[in-house]
Amino acid sequence: MNYKSEKEILAVIEKFESCSIERGTWGHPEHLIVAYHYASKNDFETALSKMRDGIFILLKSFKVDLTKEMPYHETLTVFWMRTIFEFAKDNSGFSVETINKMIEKFDKNYPGEFYTHEHLFSEEARAKFVEPDVKRIPSC
User: Fold this and answer.
1) Can you tell me the distance from the alpha carbon of 61 to that of 5, in angstroms, rounded to the nearest whole number?
2) How would residue 92 be classed by pLDDT, with cut points 50, 70 and 90?
3) Which of 21, 61, 114, 126 is the most exposed place for a label (fewest CB within 10 A)?
């Protein structure tokens, strides 16, 4: 998806933070937009905390029973926040071009360059951050 205006991008962030984004529209590009927003305005730990907390709040607003279904994945959250934090350091400002470049560069399969499928989708990786087993993630 290519975003056409800053207003459209900012609406994603506002809907995430107000829990008014629909579950069917909370996809990979939207995750990246919110991650970039937090990464560009905060230190890494604060950005990660805001993203993690926001996802859990959003899941509750979707009425996800976290005792039965756990769509949250800690390793993927940390991986993406580290990746986007590094991207934000190299890209000043918040523009439509930057957001579209980020979405194009980091498709949902990008973690596969760093993790084997078995390692990334293990129960351990879902519950807590695990380091990659293929190649190192750039550090923050």
Assistant:
1) 27
2) confident
3) 61
Instruction: Identify the three-state secondary structure at position 13.
Output: helix
Q: How far apart are the C-alpha atoms of 117 and 120, rounded to whole Å? A: 5
* Side chain identity, residue 57: I
Contact at 8 Å (CB) between 94 and 37? yes
- Residue 101 to residue 96: CA distance in whole angstroms: 8
Buried b (16+ CB within 10 A) or exposed e, 36-59: bbbbbebebeebbebbeebbeebb
Q: Is 128 helix (H, G, I), strand (E, B) or coil?
A: coil
* CB neighbours of residue 65 within 10 Å: 9
For 3-61, what is each residue's pLDDT tens digit? 999 999 999 999 999 999 999 999 999 999 999 999 999 999 999 999 999 999 999 99
d(CA 88, CA 70): 29
Q: What is the dihedral of CA 134, 121, 56, 83, to 10 degrees?
A: 20
Q: Is the dihedral of CA 27, 51, 57, 121 positive or negative?
A: positive
DSSP H or E segment with residue 12? helix 6-17
Element (H, E) at 55: helix 44-61
